[in-house]
């Protein structure tokens, strides 16, 4: 009979030193400052932007190192292909379900009905930049061609995750084909990754300040008024996200043998951070390491998580479905079920078109509206005021969905240490330096 794993004892430390508490405190302070002292809140924006840029600076190298190392160390190229196919199947099934949930909920609650917005009276200038940006996502052939960067470093320079992923996969296969001769390069990549993770650790120390700056700016700029004006849409969307957790992610985790709530507790600092910054890139490196610590094989994490950032946009799909139909309702645009199903099919394609482009959700939405030619594209000006409130929610869902996807695919591939997973989830995440000090103290 196999011995059960001994639960780890989480080292006790003052609650105020926990990064999750610090980030939450930063968010609360940001709300207060943004509401009562809007001038200070508006001036705090660079704090959040600086942190996001610092993380964006290292996301490309982290993806490159993790994907290349994962493929090269996997040894079996069939395994790499098998993991990729399983991940893509999972991504497409779950994002399709997300779109359906988004469409059904918005049609049942109908938050836009009765607004009677005159499209000609909208401020088209406010949406013009997004409409212009949308032209980059309309053509499927252009999207596929743009997967290939002009040079090996173009994706890194532009921060394009899909191009970085493309180069990383090819380079990883190249090193795998080289066999033993590739070992020196893999050692260099591992050493380089350690240096990058040191930068990330340094950045995380200022993440509470970043969360404060981002949320203070948001509250000072849009205030409570924006929430009241379009409160029905915001409330409907938050409910839709909750339904997705209950109807999709919870059953997936349950049948895969682990607790969704415990997983969310394990990555709570990352979830709180994306609530403040509305940026999924800001937590990618930390999420990568935590999933490996949970017991997922490095090669699987290195393939599935970057792929999820490009193709598994659960929350964003909820957003696209909800907002597109809301705009039709608000502008009294007739949109039957046949047209909505056609919209769903288009969304499955265009939702991938913005992968790797920071803040592209509205541009991709504009591209979708333009391609269907059913809903006035200029109507997106209606949601600009509450987009930040919506994006915090859908990025939160995206991060949770990608964490779940990585564990599920690892289990599917039999590349998951289940005992370690349960032990880690039961104890909660422990910072590496805290764990080392705890072990040294016991000995």
Automatic annotation (TrEMBL):
Specify the protein's topology with respect to the membrane: Multi-pass membrane protein
Q: Which domain of life is it from?
A: Bacteria
Places the protein is found = Membrane
Matching PROSITE patterns: NA_DICARBOXYL_SYMP_1
Keywords attached to this entry = Membrane, Symport, Transmembrane, Transmembrane helix, Transport
Please give the start and end residues of each transmembrane region.
Answer: 21-38, 50-75, 87-110, 161-179, 237-261, 341-369, 389-410
For this protein, the record's Pfam families field holds: SDF
Which Gene3D superfamilies is this protein grouped with? Sodium:dicarboxylate symporter (1.10.3860.10)
NCBIfam families documented for this protein:
PRK01663.1
Protein name per UniProt: C4-dicarboxylate transporter DctA
């Amino acid at each position: 009979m196999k011995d059960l794993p001994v639960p780890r004892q989480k080292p006790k430390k003052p609650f105020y030193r926990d990064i999750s508490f610090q980030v939450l405190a930063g968010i609360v302070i940001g709300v207060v400052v943004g509401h009562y002292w809007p001038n200070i809140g508006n001036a705090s924006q660079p704090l959040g932007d600086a942190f996001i840029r610092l993380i964006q600076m290292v996301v490309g190298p982290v993806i490159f190192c993790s994907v290349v190392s994962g493929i090269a160390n996997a040894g079996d190229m069939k395994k790499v292909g098998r993991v990729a196919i399983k991940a893509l199947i999972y991504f497409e099934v779950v994002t399709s379900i997300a779109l359906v949930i988004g469409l059904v909920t918005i049609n049942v609650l109908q938050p836009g009905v009765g607004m009677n917005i005159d499209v000609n009276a909208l401020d088209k200038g406010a949406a013009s930049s997004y409409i212009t940006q949308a032209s980059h996502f309309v053509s499927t052939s252009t999207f596929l061609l743009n997967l290939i960067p002009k040079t090996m470093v173009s994706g890194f320079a532009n921060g394009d995750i899909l191009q970085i992923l493309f180069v990383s996969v090819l380079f990883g296969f190249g090193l795998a084909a080289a066999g033993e001769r590739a070992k020196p390069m893999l050692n260099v990549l591992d050493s380089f990754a350690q240096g990058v993770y040191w930068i990330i650790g340094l950045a995380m120390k200022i993440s509470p300040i970043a969360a404060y700056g981002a949320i203070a700016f948001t509250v000072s700029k849009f205030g409570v008024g924006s929430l009241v004006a379009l409160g029905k849409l915001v409330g409907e969307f938050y409910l839709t996200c909750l339904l997705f957790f209950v109807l999709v992610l919870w059953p997936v985790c349950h049948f895969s043998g682990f607790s969704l709530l415990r997983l969310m507790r394990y990555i709570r600092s990352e979830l709180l951070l994306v609530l403040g910054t509305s940026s999924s890139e800001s937590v990618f490196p930390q999420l990568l390491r935590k999933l490996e610590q949970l017991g997922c094989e490095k090669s699987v994490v290195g393939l599935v998580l970057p792929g999820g950032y490009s193709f598994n946009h659960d929350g964003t799909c909820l957003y696209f479905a909800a907002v597109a139909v809301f705009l039709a309702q608000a502008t009294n645009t007739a949109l039957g079920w046949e047209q909505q199903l056609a919209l769903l099919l288009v969304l499955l394609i265009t939702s991938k078109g913005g992968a790797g482009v920071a803040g592209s959700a509205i541009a991709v939405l504009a591209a979708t509206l333009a391609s269907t030619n059913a809903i006035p594209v200029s109507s997106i000006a209606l949601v600009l005021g509450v987009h930040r409130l919506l994006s915090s929610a859908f990025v939160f869902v995206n991060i949770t969905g990608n964490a779940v996807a990585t564990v599920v695919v690892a289990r599917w591939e039999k590349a998951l240490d289940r005992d370690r997973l349960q032990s880690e989830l039961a104890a909660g995440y422990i910072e590496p330096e805290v764990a080392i000090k705890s072990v040294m103290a016991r000995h």
